[in-house]
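User: Predict the complex.
Assistant: Input components as received:
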Amino acid sequence: MPEAGAVRMTQPVHPDVAIIGGGFAGCAAAHRLAARGVSCLVIEFKGFLGGRAMSYRLPNWPVPLDNGQHVLLGCCAAAMEFLRATGAGADINWHDRLFISNGNGAVESVKTWPLAAPFHLLPFLMNYPGIDLADKFRIAWGIGRMAMSRSGNAAWPETARRIGQTDRIRKMFWDPFLISALNAPPEGMGDAFVRRVIIDAFLRSRGGVRIGVPNLPLAAIFSERVRPALERGGAVFQTGKRVLRLSIRPDDFVIHIHDQSALTAKQIILATGPAAARAILEESTGLESMSGPIGEILGGSPIISIHLLYDRVLTDLSFCLVQNRTIQWIFNKGVIDGKQHLQAIISGADEWAGQSQMELVMIADEETRRALGAAGKLEHGVAFIEKNATFPPRPGIRRPKFNISPKPGLWLAGDYVDTGWPGTIESAVRSGFAAADACLAGVKGRGV
Ligand SMILES: Cc1cc2nc3c(=O)[nH]c(=O)nc-3n(C[C@H](O)[C@H](O)[C@H](O)COP(=O)(O)OP(=O)(O)OC[C@H]3O[C@@H](n4cnc5c(N)ncnc54)[C@H](O)[C@@H]3O)c2cc1C
């Protein structure tokens, strides 16, 4: 490998900040830096931005297919700040009403009231299907207990039992929400993450539990909104470049790229996702110690997304939560020439990630038709299994801080960094903002 002094410098820019990784975290950092007039360069391995929030193009499908639905909640304030600022705010449809299928064709809906939190939750809970009144009071009690407890390191099922949440309450109420919010089976959830969801989604504000669903393919959000907005703001992008390692010099860093080229930058935000960040740091002399804390977070939790194209329209609902089935959500992706495109989601899908495409499509087809109580012939089906969708929200898991670097000017960003949030877009954007703010302080300190 070439040494720092002997590298071929192919890039004329010498940015104040180089951001390695063009997912939500890296792009959020670029947005904040560009908005403050700091020159930044985003180096991305793939040919496009978006990272884990991506779309596939398949020859027999007329539209791009998102690898997962990528839902936001009303409490995702940083994510919405970023999307609005990059012109993608209007690409999210917000829903106050949640439709819930019992898995056998009976669909009911719940909605919060325009009352101050937590009273807005009363009708939501009271009208929640499949749960009797006594259990609804137990849920309200459980929400209160969780909110008032201190964050612990216990597993959620243990805590749930302690605060009176029976197996049935968990199955009908908590599991559908928490499995998708935290992307893990209940036994793999730390109660600190559950507490965070309860406080931010249910209690902090009236709008926290609203559901935001993108109305554009994820690829288009990045290619048509985010990237042009960031470029207008002055950010520069290099895609198709894999960073191998970093070298430390007294006043800056050298970034070594797979094609033997290299770049320099005064500060670096490493926003690659945990496995790649660890690999880069392990190869970077003087920075190896940073890779240790990242190692603790490795081991992804899978999400399966199954796209189904029917010969007719099965539902006019935008989306619905499904109780008592393997699939947890169904999203309506629109009607193409009279054929309906639906997307079924299985989060926390460890148990299902080893199934074949065909088995997953068959399960999703059967359960979708049953959940909606509708007949229809499946014309096409495809399942995407994202094995490392998010880090597992295990009890007591320790996440690296964004500023663990032994060398000033190198910051971590990514959904896995310790933001208090589970592995979500919100966590990624928060971490990107935090790393950018740290860079800004560095830029100011040098009077650049
Ligand atoms: C199927 C699925 C469904 C999901 N659903 C939701 C949801 O409903 N709601 C929600 O909030 N979150 C959801 N998530 C999680 C969300 O996608 C992630 O939390 C978020 O996108 C992480 O962003 P990031 O920037 O931290 O990391 P990433 O998106 O992983 O970005 C890292 C980037 O770094 C690049 N990179 C890696 N190595 C290198 C290298 N050596 N050199 C240069 N570049 C490199 C990668 O190509 C990638 O683009 C879902 C994820 C998946 C996979």
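The chain has three domains: 4-52+217-298+394-445, 65-91+212-216+300-390, 113-206.
Let me know if you want any component modeled separately.
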